[in-house]
Every structure is written in structure tokens, then in C-alpha cells.
Amino acid sequence: MYKNIVEWLENRTGIETAIKNFLYEDIPASSGWHQVIGSMAVFFFIIQVFTGGLLAFNYAPTPGEAYNSVKYIMTELTGGSLIRGLHHWGASMMLIIVVLHMLQVFLYGAYKKPREATWMMGVVLLLVTLAFGLTGYLLPWDNRAYWGTVVTTQIAGQAPIAGQYLTRLLGGEGSVGNVTFSRFYALHTVLLPPLTMILIGIHIFLVRKHGVTPAVGDDKPRRKFFPEQVFKDTVGVAFAFIILFLMAVFAHVPLGRLADPTDTNFIPRPEWYFLFLFQTLKFFKGPLEAIGSVVLPGVAVLTLFLIPFIDRGPLVRLGKRTFAFAFAGLALIAWTGLTTAAIMTTPKTTEADETAPGAESLQAWQTLSPNELQGLGYFRSQNCKACHPGAGKTGIGPDLTKMIPAHRDAAWMIPHFKNPAQVVPGSSMPPVQLDDAGLNALSAFVLKLTPQNEQGLLAAPDFAVQGATLYQTKHCDACHQIQGVGKKVGPPLDNIGAHRDRTWLEKHFVDPRSMSPGSMMPPYKFTPPEMDAICKYLLQLPKAGG
Amino acid sequence: MTAIGAALAAPAAVYLLFPPKVRKEGQWVDAADLTALPTGKPEEISFQRTRVDGWKVTSEKATAWVLKKSDSDVVAFAPQCTHLGCAYHWDDPSHTFICPCHTSAFSIDGKVLSGPAPRPLDRYEVKVDGSRLQIGPMEPHV
Predict the structure, then answer these.
(1) Do B26 and A77 touch (CB under 8 A)?
(2) Sequence-distant (≥ 6) Cβ neighbours of residue A112 within 8 angstroms
(3) Which of A33, A215, A426, A522 is deepest in the core (most CB within 10 A)?
(4) Is the Cβ–Cβ distance between A9 and A79 less than 8 Å?
(5) Where do the structural domains in chain A lie, given as residue ranges?
(6) Is-contact A494 A482, C-beta < 8 A?
(7) Average pLDDT of chain A?
């Protein structure tokens, strides 16, 4: 049966012959471990395509949404952080492997006639790998991604003549935003992967056309690719994969704060493999900057590309390639030196990792104080939204997220609430009928609104608003603290959900001393909906400083 | 090779097939004023509720067909036909809920009278708080 199927397949497609041709390629007797790296590079490309596809299943390719979806992948999907880990570390490892592969080919002189085109195709593949790294870096849309890309597009802009066009092409004119994001995403997922597949295809075709480079003086009978070299390749691949998997499991990939173009404290740094370029830039000041950012890298790439034509001598033994070793050694020393210098001069980041194990994945309302949440309750009950629709729209009243700085002040806002027409002549806003505490809470909430958080804050669940309002009206802050606000007579309530549950809280409200002997807290009688709201609210309070 | 395949396929499978960790959301919403609803006749009400949609929590309009039997006995039906999810409506002359897609008909208490619907209308959990109607999550199917 099996034999019949194989025969049918072979007859109709020739696949068996194709596989045999592939496996039984003639290779020199001197082939060995040093030639497994190319297979490893192909394998890592496959890993990147696979994990990248999986990430794309849960990724929203627009700024802002992108960040939330990456956070969702990291914190809410089973295996999500592992998949992202594989993709993130896989990218770094792929680059290392590609460079090692080139280094091996370079040291062995395998780029020499007739294999010049194979080498040049390899250089193009190195550039493509770097382009993957550069474009992928932006996609999580956190501060690191955003600011790193700002620097990248600025550097592209320094290129002589082509600079401004390059910046425009990358959508970086003015600022990095939607356009740059979409272009980087398109490059990373639509353009580069098929291009890489074609280039790898050509590269492998050329390798097969000219055969694997034999060592000098290798006149032993040739061997077949299968089984010995296939086994070695497999071992190499498995070894690299184990390292990658361990990295993905144990080395957490950080996700910083949402990209914030107004954050003046963030110190941008590129991914580690671009750090040497970043450091090189520091040596060139003013008009000379383009030398470090464009000319030198350009010359380096061109040199790399033309190596087969610069070194045209006959193939010699590895031990006699002193110049090649010296060249590679110097490049390695320069790279290490520059990268180390860049790392040494990088100040320790204070950027918190939003997805680190234990880090709360906060919903927008959890960033509000009880007072501000109570304000949100008034915002709803006073139907402020009817005239201030938000979401960038202007209704009868202005967009509250874009108030002028002079109005971003409770001292201006509260008199305005009390008598709008007096503070803003001609205003058709009716006076807000609330007591001073209510007006205070409402202004505290409105002051908190920004275009970024507006939607999230307005979507705060009712229990949070009701719970916080109860917390305020029952003056719980006379004894308790939340986020450092309130008195310290009783224990602070931050993150209380970590060590108390619903039943405990309910019993505690009804009869505090039965749960905490010696407690001074008076019993509270809540209606069932009130009890429901305050318990839910308290149990979802984040950690202090969260 | 098989081991590598498994090491990639297993995380991929759980990543795609396991449901996301449930986010705690306020499931109950204040939906309607009971005094404004007629007794004994279903009324379609709309209200705002928050829904977790992937990485986004959205506040969206939701509707329900509410039948007030008395001031304390209220039923809220989810507004989709249990056959293929079309929106049904109350047909007063025939005193039935009728689905326009495949003509399923349901009685006033949601039972299937005719058509391809496989089960009675789905219901939301409800709470009556004074004169306010609160609507909660969907009741599990019977």
C-alpha cells in the first residue's frame, strides 16, 4: 500500500527523485562541521516565519492597538510569551548565525572564483536580515520601539541626496506615526519574507551549481550529502534550537510603556546589533555626521560585497590566510569595542516592563484614585458626554482631552462648573448641580483625561465607579490608604485582592471584629448591589505604585 | 527533527487553541427603568455594556427583549434566534417572537413553537433593584 502511494507520487510528481537528488548531492570529502552553519541560518528563517505567522494571528497592525495586542499576547494567551520569545531571540540568533556563516566562508576563502555570485547573494541576505531586525523593532510600539525608530529614520535622512526621499519613503517625514508604522509592518511581513525566500533559493541554487568548496589539496573521493553531513547539519540545528528555546523560556522579552512621543526622559537605544553603528555616530559631529551614519556603513557594505574581486588570489590553506584572519579579527575587535562602549554609556533604564511576571496588567480605570472614579460617576450622571462626546469629536462643548493648559486646573474648572456663563461668557453649559466635594471629584476626573486614555477610562465598569463612590461617601479614606492617599489608621488597601477574597471582605464589612479581632472599624450595612460593587472594586485595586 | 517539530507545534497549539485568560469585568449593568416597561408584553430595550474583545475592552450598545411579568418577575431574552443568530422580533398579532430568517417562532416565554430553532431563546441573568432592572451575563443553555 505504502509502496503504491510512493510509486504513484513519484510517477505523477517526481518527488522521490527530487528528494534523492537533493540528498545524494556530491560533496567534498573535506566537508564537515564547519559547513553546518548555512543550514542553521535557513532553519532560523523558517522559525521566524512560523513564529511570526503565529504572532500575526493576534496582532493588530496599527499604532496603539499594536501595543495592546502584544501585551495581550504576552499576558493573556497561553504560550504567547513563549512564541514572542522564540521570535525575538530567534531574530538575534539568526543574525549571529548569518554572520558566523559569512565568517566561515570568508576565512575559508570560499567566495573565490567561481563562487563570487554566491557570496554577493549572501551579502544581500545579510542586509535583508538586518532589514528584518530594523522593521520588526518598531512593531511592539513601546517606547523602546518608537524612539529607536525615530533615530533610525533620522539617520536615513542624513544620507547625501537620497536622504529626504528615503525619509519620505519610510513615512518618517515630520514624525514617526501611522505611515512609518504601516510601511515597516508591510516591509516586515509582506515584502521581506517572500524576497528572502527567493534570495535563499538563488543562494542555494548557486551553492549547488558550484558545489561545496573543497579544502585545499582535498583529492579524496567525494562523498554524498546524505547521511553523514545531513546528520551533522541536524545536530547543529538541534543545538541552536535548544539554545533558542531556553532563551525563549527563561529570558523574558520586555515590553515597555506604550510609545509616548512626548516622553522626554526616554533614552533611545537601537537593538544590540546596531549599537556599534550608534557608537560610531558619536565620533562624527556636525556636518561630518553623515560620514559616520551613511558613508562609512556604505563603504563597509560595498567592501563586503566586492571582497571576491578584491581578493582574487588562488585558494590557500586556512593556516596561510593570515591577512583574512587579521581582517576578521580587527573587525571583530572594532565591533566588540564599539558595542561595549555603547553599552557602558547607556544609563540604566528606569522603564518598567509592563509584562514582567507579577506586573499587573492594569486596566485604564485602575489607574484612577477613588476620588477620580467618583468624578467619573458624576461625569456619567451629569451626562457630560452629551455635549463633550470625546474621541476627538467636538460636540456642543469642546474636546475635554485637548483643553488649553490654563483650563487644566481645578482652580479654573470648579468656578466654571458652578457658573459656566460667568467664567466663559456666552457658554451654553448649564451649571453643574453638585456639592463642593462632588465638583472637586468631577474636576479631578476631567483633569485626568488624555486622548490616549479617554476611551479606556470612560469604559470603566460600573462596579468600579459605584465602589469608589461608596468608598468616598463612607469616608473610608479617614482610616485607609489607596495609592498613598488617606490616613494610616487601618491597613492600606492596595492590592488587597492578593490576600483577601470576597467572602472575607463581606464578613468583614458586616462584623469587622469577627474577622480582625481588635479592629476599630465600625460595621457597615450595604445593600446587596452596594456590597457587590465595593467588594469587586476593592478586590481589583492594583499594587501601590502600580 | 521530530523533537524540534514537537517543541514548536505544542506551544503553537496551546497558543491558538486555549482560550485567553479571563479578564474580570463588571458583568452587571443597569439596563432599564422597570416602571417605564409595559407588563405582560415584551419590549426591546437597549443598554450599554462593556465587552472584552481580544485586547480591547469596548463599551457597546446591547439589546434585549424584556418581558415584565410583574414588578419583581422579569425575564430578559438575548436578542438572537437560537437557530443561526438572526435578530428576531415580537409579533403582537400572533403573540409570538418570530425570526425572519427561517421562520422560527417562540412563545412569549421563549419556548420554540415552530421552525428549526434547536432550543428556547437564551436568557440574560437579571436582578431587580427597586425600580431598576440590572442585566448580567448570559444564562448557560439549558
Answers:
(1) no
(2) A308, A311, A312, A313, A314, A315
(3) A215
(4) no
(5) 24-344, 362-460, 467-546
(6) yes
(7) 87
- Report d(CA A326, CA A273) in Å as an integer: 22
pLDDT score of A392 more than 50: yes
Q: Which amino acid is residue B123, in one-letter code? A: R
* Number of helical (H) and strand (E) elements in chain B, helices listed first: 1, 10
**Do residues A276 and A163 touch, judged by C-beta distance below 8 A?**
no
Domain presence at residue B1: no
For A467-546, CATH gives 1.10.760.10
Nearest CB to A82; choose among B11, B30, B58: B11
Reading the block at residue B70, the C-alpha cell is 410583574
B131 vs B137: CA distance, rounded Å: 20
pLDDT score for A98: 97
DSSP A326-392: HHHHHHHHHHHHHHHHHHHTSPPP-PPPTTSTT-----GGGGS-HHHHHHHHHHHHTTGGGT--BTT
Complex ipTM more than 0.85, yes or no: no
Residues of B in contact with A82 (CB under 8 A): 11, 15
Residue A411's CB is within 10 A of a number of other CB atoms, namely 8
* Chain segment B87-129, per-residue pLDDT in tens: 999 999 999 999 999 999 999 999 999 999 999 999 999 988 8
Q: Do A77 and B18 touch (CB under 8 A)?
A: yes
